[in-house]
Amino acid sequence: MAAAPSVFLVRALEKILNDKDTRKSQHAQLKKVCIQALDDVKQKAKKEGERKDGSTGKSIASGGADAYFKPFELACKSKSPRIISTALDCLQKLIAPGHLTGSSQDPDNPQKLLVDRMVDTVCSCFQGQNTDEGVQLQIIKAVLTMVSVPTCHVHEASLMQIIRTCFSIYLASKNQINQTTAKATLTQMLSITFQKMEQHAQGREKLTSSSASIPLEQAHSQGGHEARGDDAASLAETASNASDTETRAVIAATAAMDVPTEEDLENELEEETGPEDSAEQVARQLVKEVVEKAVDEVNAEILVESVKEGLARQQSADTETATANANGDLKAADSTIASSRASAGSLNMEVLSDVEGLDAMEGVLKPGKKLKFTHITQKDAFLVFRSLCKLSMKSVESADPKSPELSSTVLSLELLLGILQNSGPFFRTNELFVRAIKQYLCVSLSKNGVSNVPQVFEVSLSIFLTLLQSFKYHLKMQIEVFFKEVFLNILQSANSSYHHKWLVMQALTRISGDAQCIVDIYLNYDCDLSLANIFERLVRDIAHVAQGHKAIALGNPTPAQEKALQLKGIECFVSILRCMVEWSRELYVHPGAPHASATTESQSHRGSVDNIQSAVSGGYERASPSPFHPRPSSTVHDGTDPVDAATPVESGSIDNPEMVEVRKKRKDLMEQGLLKFTQNPKKGMKFLQENGLIGPEASDVAKFFHSDDRLDMVAIGEYLGENNKFCIDVMYSYCDQMDFSGIDFVPALRLFLSGFRLPGESQKIDRLMEKYAARYCENNASLQLFASADTAYVLAYSIIMLATDLHSTKIKRQNKMTKEQYIKMNRGINDQKDLPPEYLEGIYDEIARQAITLRPTGKTAKALMEDRSHIQTSFTSATHIDHVRPMFKLAWTPFLAALSLSLRDADDMQMVTLCLDGFRCAIRIASIFNMQLERNAFVQSLAKFTLLTNTGLSEMKPKNIETIKTLIAVAHSEGNYLQESWHEILNVVSQLELAQLIGTGVKTRYISSGATDGGGAGGPMGIRDSTAAANELLEGARGKMDQKTLATIQESMGETSSQSVVVAVDRIFTSSSLLDGDAIVDFVRALCSVSVAELESRVVPRMFCLTKIVEISYYNMGRIRLEWSRIWAVLGEYFNKVGCNPNDDIAFFAIDSLRQLSIKFLEKGELANFRFQKDFLKPFEYVMKRTGSLMIRDMIVSCTEQMVSKQVHNIKSGWVNIFAVFHKAASDRDEKLVEKAFFRITKIFRDHFAATIETFQDAIKCLSEFACNTAFPDTGMEAIQLIDLCGQQLAVRPELFGEANEETVDAQDRVWVKGWFPVLVELSYIVSRCKLDVRTRALTVMFNIMKSYGHQFTIHWWKDLFSVVFRIFDNTMLPEAQEEDWNLSPQEVASKSEWMTTTCPHALMAIVNVFTQYFDKLVPVLLDDLFGQFCWCAQQENKDLAAAGLDCLESFVLSNGGAFDEQIWDKTIECVEKIFEDTVPHKLLTWQPHTTQYIPHSPISIPRRADLAARASGSGSAEISRRSTDTGGAQDSPASIHRAIGQQPFVQPASVNTDSKLLEGSSQENRPEAAAEGAALQVHSESLSVMSDVSQPAEVADDASQLSSQQQQKEEQPQQSQPENGKSLRPKQETSLQPQQQQSTISDAKKKEVQANADEAQRRLFATLTIRCQVQRALIRTVDHILFSSVTSKEEDTRLIHAASHEVSHPRTGTPQPSPMVRPAQSGTRVEMVRTSSGSAMVPLLNAKQLLSLVNMLLKSHDFAKSFNQNEDLRTKLWKAGFMDRLKPNMWSQEVASIACALRLLFLIYEAERFSSHWDAVELQLMDVWRTAIAYFCLLSSQKQRHEWLGVLLLLFDRLGSMQSDRFECHLLSEEASILFDMLPLELDPEIRCTMRNLLKDMHLRFCAKR
Q1: Cβ distance 670 to 531 under 8 Å?
Q2: pLDDT for res 1001
Q3: Which residues does the chain have with pLDDT short of 50?
Q4: Which of 899, 882, 885, 971 is nearest to 933 (CA)?
Q5: Strand, helix or coil at 452?
Q6: pLDDT single digits (tens) 452-498
Q7: 20 to 30 A Cα–Cα from 993, which one of 755, 1132, 1482, 1645?
Q8: 1046 near 1034, Cβ under 8 Å?
Q9: Phi-psi region of 639 (alpha: psi -120 to 50; beta: other; left: phi over 0)
Q10: What predicted TM-score, i.e. pTM, was given to this entire model?
Q11: To the nearest 10°, the Cα dihedral for 1272, 1273, 1277, 1280?
């Protein structure tokens, strides 16, 4: 093998010499050189054989053939194609193994290497399109070998020349194989060039990371064939990425071949490669020979070079030296490039100067940074890339595929596409190449992207996609231009061809398939304030395409094209939605799956929504993979690059969702503000400033006008011209921010006016020109062109006028301003001087040539790209899931519109499938981000397309069936997120049941919906199934369509009954157990709502959802109680509503279903303190209370009874509802129902009393309700008996209640709170509500419990108990208590009156008995309450209640007075005094008629007794004038009376007797006999009548006062007549009012109403006053009975009257003897006189102070009555007003009784020895009392009234006559006693006259004895 190189070279030379063309004369030089070379080689070979070390062979093998290049050069320059082909073939075979390297210097030009000469030689063989095809192929073979082999270093100009030559062969060759080979060779050479650069960069990185350097020899030894297999694989990969199909085929075929050895090359030298060989074979052989050899050693060579540079860099200490060397290399390269420029191809395809290009690139680099290549391979790659970019920018004038210009452009673009697609990380990240892409490639694309040539546009589009995929992090601004100005404009343009639109849609579909790309577009453009909303526009434009021909304008597309384009639009939309789903997959949790597993599943299927759907339903096939690499799941969190890890994310900003949202909102506000500014500049600017988008200063606004190109220039002009201070400041600042220095006047004016349009008003223009002139003169003061700013101002204005005149289309040409006219117009403007004429002429000419225009707002894409090529921006790589929400919120309406319209119009199943897939994705996104509005919109739209909800069965198509399936799949997959959208889905499912029945053709039938539980109550429901509704729909449809259509519908509906659909529907309900806690609540709520709609159907109610509710309840029975509580909150409301359905069958089924569920829940039991049973049994209670059906109530009672019988031991909190049901049943009017309920509750109390402890109060309430059912009194008695039984259990088993878990109550009080108290409360409730027999029984039981078990009660228990007991007397029970009681019937009034006359006395007496029994325990704490109750009763305007109160007071005192201490007696006296004070009828003395105007007179004062005595004794007159004294109180008006006595209304019962004797206390009143329990109150009841305290309302008083002020009142005096029988007749009362003048506006009806109200108020007032008078009389009698017992006073009065009568009938003669009535006193002693007594008098127990208090009270009562009796005028008015029916009212009884009782007390104190300390004071008071009484008696004019005083006078005379001598003398033998003689002239009763005569005799005897 050592001699092989020499042999190979010899054979090559011999092959050239043996060619017949070489023998020609013109090739003599060639022949000579070949012979010389051949001889030299042979000699060296011979010498080589003599050497042992083989150094020569080694030299030849390592490039020794370089010295023999001359023969091959001359052969290539020959004109013979055969010689050239042979020479090229030999050169290729010498270069491939490394024998010919060209590494030595060129002998002819030492500044160049031999390899450059070799390249020139080979490339010069191509002489244009006439070059032999074989030669072309050999050239391609040779240049590929030179570039590929690692031993031949072709760089810079040589490399560019090789590429240019191959480029020219491709364009000029007519052979398709040669073109294909040239293209493949170009592709391969470019790939090798850029791979060398990438591998060198990787070698540098590895070297940098290594700590030890590699020796060069080791590097050479390792550069063998180790990487051959990997490089072959790399070549195969390159072939797969090639853009041309044929090229890929050639390269792939050769890559599979074996790598040739040197023996193979030697054998090939012997073979002729003549023209007869196939070009395709030559191409294959070429690639085989070159590529395989190149890839064998390329890695070793690159590694060696890397090591060399690394060592050199380590040894270099000065970086400046390295920079100088690099600059020197650049200069050498530039000179080489300049020298190679002359050798351009025959087609004049000249590549631009590399030096110029490098200088241009230096200009775009960062300041202070020069262009620098780290390696020659980097420079080669840059030169190639830039040259291709410039070639691609050449203009294409013809669309002919054979056009060289078109072919050149297409080929250059394809090569660029290959470079970008196979680019490595160094190319993608190096700043130099990124700049080249921006400056050259993007500009080229902006030009070719709008090309009309489809091939150019298509390749440009592919390049853009590649840039977007791999370089978007560096091309943020350029991508915006591509989208905004190029591709999306094509979609919108009507002039774009269908093919262009189709290509764009394909590209957008590819873009839409990459989730990272889509989110990045939104993040970097739609959320950037300065950039366009690319994502928003993308969605909007795609939506137009997706909506079909109605939404997009095409040239003249065919229907197939329209359909294809629409399909592509929908596909693009669906891809975007899939990307959103993919991006947000980590938020999704599948029902029933934990979050982690759901994430793993979604990661395995990322990028394909179909796979997500198949994971749910298994009904969709997998989608094709995205053309862009999907972003790994991990990048959502770590932020790595989506394309390659080498892409630096650091170049962009950090993804912050919060900041992104802020920027997006700010951008939206900015866009809104710009729109407002265009519409109204002032309002728009205000909006922008208020939202902080522009600063508040004028300079901020001016800067904004300069910087933002989006502003409308007309609006800017209007704003700047406003005559507003701020707007003027803005205009000044706007102008000041411009610099006109060194600019001519007209260009400066153009610059000033380029940013806005001048407003139309001259004033605004004037201000603008004035400021411009000032600014221009300020910037150009040194020019001294103008005398002042005024000159500039006038000139500027004249220029505006000139521009308007010359360029206005409204001015005719002949009327336009001439140059002379313009000069004349500007004369004298420069401070009275003229400007130079040539200057004005220049202005005129310039304006004439070009008008003053605005700066261009729209640039071409190329111009925009060039402008933005130097802008540095950061690109943010999206990493957060949160971006999907605002993206979807922005785009959901176009999505919905496009999908809905397409699905509506589509019949193609491919389109239908895409639309439905889009719906599913949209619902998924809206669901996981909880976007309710969006989710509901998509679900509702999808539900509408099922045609099940709008009865469009006649239009049912297969797509609707698919829609149904999709909606079911949505329910399966999105169940956890649907919320209220469940309603739409379940509504479709409900209607689907009808459709299934239609499809199966089931006949109408009835079903039996009995209970599934064997123990339940079942039976025929009487309601038809869903089949009935389905058939009724069909029956209605038969009248509108033929049988064929009906058959078609049934066939379509039959598909809904397929096994898959039925199973899927069932799975919705069976899978409900997999839903989370919130989702199951939403599901149940929606199902209940749909069920209610089913049951309320106007056609036929259905129970499909009702049955499903029961089913899902069973499926979810295993949920925790917390979730079930929320579920039942919905189900409970549902069963409440359904249970009250007017259709009994529906309600029956619902109640039975509820029973089944309840039993299931009860079986699970319940722990203490939980309340779930109470919740799920609540519907029974609700329905029981509200249903009107007896059958349903009976059903509920039966269900409750069944639950109790089966699960009594598991019931805990459910007892509340059970007793509530029985409580409602207790008040029913159906006897069977009541008996059934009472039977069950009786059994509960008797057999399971302990189970009711927790709800004992509810149980007692239930019994109470049974007792109060008036329809069944026997049941009521039994219920009271059960309550009594409960009391017995409480007494026997109190520990049951002590065990109750009631933390808020002390253990010792639990039996009271939960036991005794409820029992006693309910008994009092029964007493208050029931009829006489039942309430009497309840009252008896209640007080028996108190008496029997009261010893167990503590003090605070008694307090609680009596707070309940006293409520029996609540005023709400009185007939007069409520205003509505005025409308009661007489029977109802009588019933309540009966309650007052029976129950109240009984209760009061029972209370007294309880107090008596437990006196020691109750009195210390409850005595005040008891006395308060007595006072309350006495104060009520009810005769019976007042009588009961006073009687019980008397009974209590008499029964327990012996145990009273002084404190209790004080309280007793206070109670009596309070009753007296509260019941004094003071208003009786101040009353005035309400119909008359009067001056109120002072109330009658009570005259002092001394005054009466003095007047009686002094005047001796029988009449004493009355005098009034001021009491200090004002006259009470009816309104004040009303306020004073309260607002209680009054009705006068029928039993009220208004006879005057009632007021007088007569016992002749006929009244009903009281019940047995009230017999003790008979005495007081006889003297009381039922009245109520009533007063005139305030409003009535006001109306009456108004009426009286406008009308004259006339009062007719009563006409009295005194009949002979002595009875006075009540005169007729005239109360009508006679009007004087008609000045009042009150109508007659109003007057009558006012009068009626006043009359009613007066009547009620009279009743109140009457009853109070009688209470006063009864109170006097009560005091008398307490003090002297009930018989003592009567016995004494009887005795005195009897004695006086006996004296009258048997007068005494002779010496007077003491009568039985007047006993002689015992001289010298004072004895306590105790008259006949029953032994129960309490006087001995009271002290003097207490007795004297009672005396004062009695005297006050006497004085009040006396004052009333003396006021004759008042009594007459009262009589006329109807205060009494027959007689004039009086208070004679009260007057007499009070003074009699007071005298008894005074005499008792005066005579008792224990009161001796008070005798002096009592003696004076007694003397004053009896003398005042005698004086008052002497003044009486009525004989009847004098007769009333009979008992008083007899008592007085008896006690005076029985006094001891000294007291007798003090009282009767003094001067004051002469008042007795005033009685003598009066007409007295015989008894009084007789008694008085005896007293006078006694006085005479004692006087005589004293003397």
Answers
A1: no
A2: 56
A3: 1-3, 52-61, 209-369, 551, 595-652, 1003-1027, 1033-1034, 1036-1040, 1372, 1374-1382, 1491-1641, 1710-1735
A4: 885
A5: coil
A6: 888 888 999 999 999 988 888 888 888 888 888 888 888 888 788 88
A7: 1132
A8: yes
A9: left
A10: 0.66
A11: 70
Element (H, E) at 87: helix 81-95
Residue 625: burial class (beta carbons within 10 Å; 0-12, 13-18, 19+): exposed
Q: How many whole angstroms separate alpha carbon 1469 and alpha carbon 292?
A: 135
Gap between the Cα atoms of 1156 and 1176, Å rounded: 11
Q: Locate all alpha helices (DSSP H) within 1293-1414, ordered by sequence.
A: 1295-1298, 1310-1311, 1317-1329, 1332-1349, 1355-1365, 1386-1413
Q: How far apart are CA 677 and CA 686, in angstroms?
A: 9
Q: Is 833 helix (H, G, I), strand (E, B) or coil?
A: strand
Buried b (16+ CB within 10 A) or exposed e, 1416-1434: ebbbeebbebbbebbbbbb
**Cβ proximity of 63 and 3 under 8 Å:** no
1390, exposed or middle or buried, with CB in 10 Å at 0-12, 13-18, 19+? middle
For the chain, state the CA radius of gyration: 62
Number of H helices, E strands in the chain: 85, 2
Q: What is the pLDDT of residue 1572?
A: 32
Continuous H helices in 1008-1098: 1026-1038, 1043-1055, 1059-1070, 1077-1095
Q: Say if CB 162 and CB 146 are below 8 A apart.
A: yes
* Residues 508, 482 contacting (CB under 8 angstroms): no
List of residues 6+ apart from 1305 with CB closer than 8 A: 1313, 1314
Expressed in angstroms, the distance from the first to the final Cα of the chain is 195
Looking at residue 366, its pLDDT comes to 42
Do 1583 and 1563 contact (CB within 8 A), yes or no?
yes
CA–CA distances in Å: residue 1111 to residues 501, 620, 1066, 1156: 55, 30, 10, 11
The reported pLDDT for the residue numbered 914 is: 92
3-class state of residue 113 by DSSP:
strand
**Parallel/antiparallel/unpaired status of strands 1607-1608 and 1634-1635:** antiparallel
- The rounded distance, in Å, linking the Cα atoms of 681 and 673 is 10
pLDDT of amino acid 637: 35
In terms of Cα–Cα distance, which of 449, 573, 583, 585 is closest to 512? 573
Round to whole Å and give the CA distance between 1747 and 1575. Answer: 29
Q: CA 557 → CA 501, 543, 563, 564, distances in Å?
A: 11, 18, 10, 10
Report how far apart, in Å, the C-alpha atoms of 852 and of each of 741, 796, 800, 846 are.
20, 12, 8, 10
Q: Are 1569 and 1683 in contact (CB under 8 A)?
A: no
Beta bridge partners of 1635: 1607
Give the whole-angstrom CA distance, residue 1048 versus residue 523: 51
Cβ neighbors of 1169 (< 8 A, separation 6 or more) are 1301
1725/1736 Cα distance (integer angstroms): 27
Distance separating alpha carbons of residues 1536 and 1531, to the nearest angstrom:
9
3-state secondary structure of 1608: strand
User: Alpha-carbon distance 71 to 359, whole Å?
Assistant: 40
pLDDT at residue 1051, rounded to an integer? 66
Reported residue count of the chain is: 1907
Phi, psi of 113 (to 5 degrees): -90, 160
Supply the DSSP symbol for 1572.
Answer: G
Question: Nearest-CA neighbor of 630 among 785, 777, 510?
Answer: 510
Q: 546 near 564, Cβ under 8 Å?
A: no
Q: What share of the chain is helix, strand, coil (3-state, %, to 5)?
A: 70, 0, 30
